[in-house]
């Protein structure tokens, strides 16, 4: 099956954290700016986030209790043609159907508006499908109880024409793609700050998902993009 080229693009501390108090110190500011500017380097049509990341600044919280509807849509993929025509996408991994939206797209400061595509599993309530269609949000089914990343990528390529996808966390969803050998390139912008807290790393293993062995990458390039900030690129062998 054909699927998009996947680059995992992350901002980390010196000790490999992707969240934590280091984001709030002045020394991290140049790294945050460089990370944002480097997003355009890959020319990705879509960025994929996990549920926690979506709740952290993209979705409008959680939907809560949805009203019962007389007729629910079939449990099949749904593509909003207006959203598809935008050509720029945010893919939200939302296995149980929790995320709320104000419309068919999300527009972050400094970025073009992106149509939302929900990545669902068969656990989702039928009322949530009606909710997404009313909001104009496209959705794809990819798995029964946990996300089938390979199937999701195949559908993104076939139904939306996505050839390059940026994987941007969190650690659990990144690890899920790595477990299925789907990360083609790893891009790390490293802030010159050690955190030492309990934040997660770029790839995280959890008990409720299958474990995966250590995965080797080959160093492709290292640059000092601004003083004290490294951009390190790795590819799969």
Automatic annotation (TrEMBL):
From the UniProt record, give the pathway where this protein acts: Cofactor biosynthesis; riboflavin biosynthesis
GO MF, one term, reads:
5-amino-6-(5-phosphoribosylamino)uracil reductase activity
Give residue ranges for domain Bacterial bifunctional deaminase-reductase C-terminal.
4-229
GO BP annotations of the record are:
riboflavin biosynthetic process
The keyword Ribonucleoprotein appears for this protein: no
Alphabetical UniProt keywords:
NADP, Oxidoreductase
Gene3D superfamilies attached to this UniProt entry: Dihydrofolate Reductase, subunit A (3.40.430.10)
Q: Known Pfam families for this protein? A: RibD_C
Tell whether Aminoacyl-tRNA synthetase is among the UniProt keywords.
Answer: no
Database matches in PANTHER family: 2,5-DIAMINO-6-RIBOSYLAMINO-4(3H)-PYRIMIDINONE 5'-PHOSPHATE REDUCTASE, DIHYDROFOLATE REDUCTASE FAMILY PROTEIN (AFU_ORTHOLOGUE AFUA_8G06820)
What name has this protein been given in UniProt? 5-amino-6-(5-phosphoribosylamino)uracil reductase
